[in-house]
Structure formats: C-alpha cells, structure tokens
Amino acid sequence: LTGSALLSQGALLVLAPALPGVAAKTKAWLTGRRGAPVLQLYRDLGRLWGKGVVYSTTTTWMFRLAPVVGVVTPLLAGLLLPLNGDAAVLGFAGDFVAFAGLLALGRFALVLAALDTGSSFEGMGASREATFASLVEPALFISFVVLALATGQQSLSGMLGAAGGPGSSWRTAATSLAMVAVSLFFVLLAEASRVPVDDPATHLELTMIHEVAVLDHSGPDLALLLYGGALRMALFAALLVGVLMPRAELPAPLMLAVQIGGSILVAVAVGVVESSMARLRLSRVPQFLVAASVLASLGAILQLLG
Amino acid sequence: MIVERLADLLLLLVLLSGFLILGTTRLTTCIRAVAVQGGLLGLLPLALNPQWSVHTIGLALGTILVKAIVLPSFLTWAIREAAVRREVEPRVGYMASLLLGIIAVAVAGALAARLPMVGEHPVLLVTTSLSCVIMGLLVLATRAKALLQVVGYLVLENGIYVFGLTSMDRVPFLVEIGVLLDVFVGVFIMGIVVFHINREFDSLDSARLTELKD
Questions:
Q1: B102 — contact with chain A (CB < 8 Å)?
Q2: pTM to 2 decimals?
C-alpha cells in the first residue's frame, strides 16, 4: 500500500465526473455548438444531492439498495486497477475476474431495481441492459486473457503495472495489444452507455438502454447512479490507458499525470465517435459487441501463434 | 526486422478486411473491403522481399491494378447497372458469420503451425491464406446475392494468392499472372451471369438459379 496508489484512487474519485463532460464538450465543439460546461456533471450531482427522494409504493428495499451497490462496486473494482501505473491497492492472482465480477454485480443490482419498479418500460431497459452486458463480457475476458498471455502475469497490477508492464510487451506483442486496445474501446462505449451502443442524450423510452433503467430513481439515488456511471467510464478509460501507455519507465508523479491525461484523451475519443456516427439500430448492437469479441480473439490467436 | 513487422501488419489488415466483409450489411462496404484487401495483397510481396526485383515490383503493380482497381470498379459498375443497393441478405446471420470467421482463423492458425513448410515463412502468412480461403467459402455459401458470391470467390482467390507468395522465390511469376487472369476471367463470366439472372428474373438471388430449365 503506497502513497501514490492512494493518491491515484483519490484522483479517480474526484475526477471521474469530468470525463462525461469532456466527451460532451468534444461532441458539442465538433458539431459547432457551445455545449454544457465540462464540469456540468458536478453541478448536477450537487443539485440532485440536495433534492428529496420519491419512492414508488411498488418498490422494495432492492430499489433503494441498487444506487449504493452501483457506486460501491466500481469503487472496489478501482482498487484492483494499478491507476498510478505501478501497483494497485489490492492485487492477487486472477483479480481480473473479480474486476469483471464487481462491475457485473453493479449492473445486476441496477437490473433488479429496474424490474422492481414493475414498469414495463423499465423491464424492457433491464432486459436490454442484461443482454448487451452478456455480449460485452466475453470481449472483456478475452482481452484480459491476451494481456495475461502477453505479459505472463495473472493480476491486473502485473498486466498493466510495473511488474510485467505493457511497456516491454509492446515490443513483442504490438499487434495483439492493438487488437485488445480497440476491443476495450468498444467495451468502454458499451459499458459507459455511449454512442453507437446507447445514447446518453436520448429520452425516448423505446430506444434507450441505460437511461430507461434508471428512469424511476430521483434525488440522491439518481446522483449516486450518475456518479457510478462516471466511475465506470473512468475505470475503463484507465484500463485502456494502462494497455496503451508504457508507464513503467516513467517517474512516479509523471505516471499519474499520464494516467489522467490519457483518460481525458479517451473521453475526447468518445466524443469524436459520438459526433461522427449515429446510434446503431438495436438489432445491430449485438453485431458491434461481437465484433469487439472477435477483435480480442484475433489478438489471442496472434499471441498464441507467437 | 522492420520489414517483417510491416508484412505482419499487412496480413493482419487483410484478415480484418475479411471480417469486415463477413460482418457488414452493405454491398458497397463489401466491395470497398475487397478493394482494400486487394491493395494490401499488392503491397505484400514488396514487404516480404526486402530486395525489390523487377519481378516483385511488377507483381505488386499488377496485383494492385487488378485486385484493387479493376475488379472493384467492375463490381461497382455491376451494382449500378443491376440497381442493387439493398442489404446483404445472409442465410447465416452476421453474428454467426463473424464467430465462424474467428473459428476459421483459429483452425487456420492451428493448421499453419503444423504444416512442414512453415519454418522459412512467417506463420501469419499461411494462417492468413487459409483463413481467407475459409472466409471466402463462407461468403460463397451463405450469401444470397450473386454479386456477393463474386466477392466471396475473390476473397477465396486472395487466400490462394497469399499461399502462392510462400513459394514466390521458386515458382516463376507466370503462376501469379495465371492466378490474376483466372480471377479476371472468373469475375468476367460471373458478371455476365449476374446480368443474365438480373435480366431474366429481375433479381440477383442465386437460389432462383434452380428455376432455370432448358
């Protein structure tokens, strides 16, 4: 447990809500609009935190629990990522399974809460959320397998941190790591519910995925869910930066700066994607997600061929 | 070393364009992907043989001319003439095609590692060639549009071409030219057939070939 690890965890907590803002600003700028300020989500969170909560009479404790689980699980998952580029707060062999499992648990709670409301729209949102999550997971796991093969390490600290480090494996496994990076970017777009999988700006119940599942939450509960979503995006951005940037050779303070700067660049890339393409038709989304798995598998095959 | 990396990159892009053909819903994207694949295959001999001879350069130029320029524009022309711009209409879905494609690459990789001739060539070369052949067969067998079967045949031919590159130093370039001519003639005939189907039945669906009577 080092100071820089704790510092980077703190940076994750504080800076995560800025990432959706950066993506939205990039999108607005590229489409010739002024757009909301980058720090808009902080204001929204503050505003929502001060509001009261309305609970439907049909809901149970599950509905109240879900927002808390939705924030706690990405926080715990964040402890497993080596955000400072060196080593994570927690790390053990096979912790990438725990990483994926924690994020899946958060989604599971959200899906249950959506079903708990008894609303047919939310049930639809829950079903879509669960379907697409099940297609994202193979891509994530195969990406981890490629990272494990490329670095010979079994924990996230080893795969992305100083111990194994993509820094050295980029020289030997550049093609498969590039495949993994693209695949993880697709996974990020799906996990953070961004275009082309989902559109965070839409409010038409028939087409939304993530937004419809949180439709009944209000006040601090909604604030927690929004914050949890921002954390999720930050985690996947950190994962992507960890794969792309060989940070092990850099001095410690610079590594954190590279992590933050890289995450912002990922958010800009998300904004560029959003402004350059439309949301996919729902029936085409699985195709997109399977393409992510295919890219990761191609990376694994290349890695196994040597 | 760098040259070998470049060849690997080209082969990888060839594979990815194959996946694009399997996963896309649009005919024009398919044709563009085949054109890109042809261009990449044209650059491949240059990347594989660092000492460029007249033969290598001629082969590269000829391949790019035929596979990346002439044939795709021929296919585009066929689309325009036959007025088909609809979706690909696969008999096997896009997701299943993509998954079959990745299985094809895995099988091709396993086979390529076992072939005795691999030693002197990059494993990826043989893998790419075998996977292109399987992907081409997949497109040939699962797409309803006659035009896409031409695309599938082209992908298959590209696979055979890549396999031919493994023995480029031993076999004279006549073989390569023969392959190119083969493709050209094949597509030419199939283009005529496509028109014929289109004129007779007002459709490019090859399932309706069974309605032909003499």
A1: yes
A2: 0.89
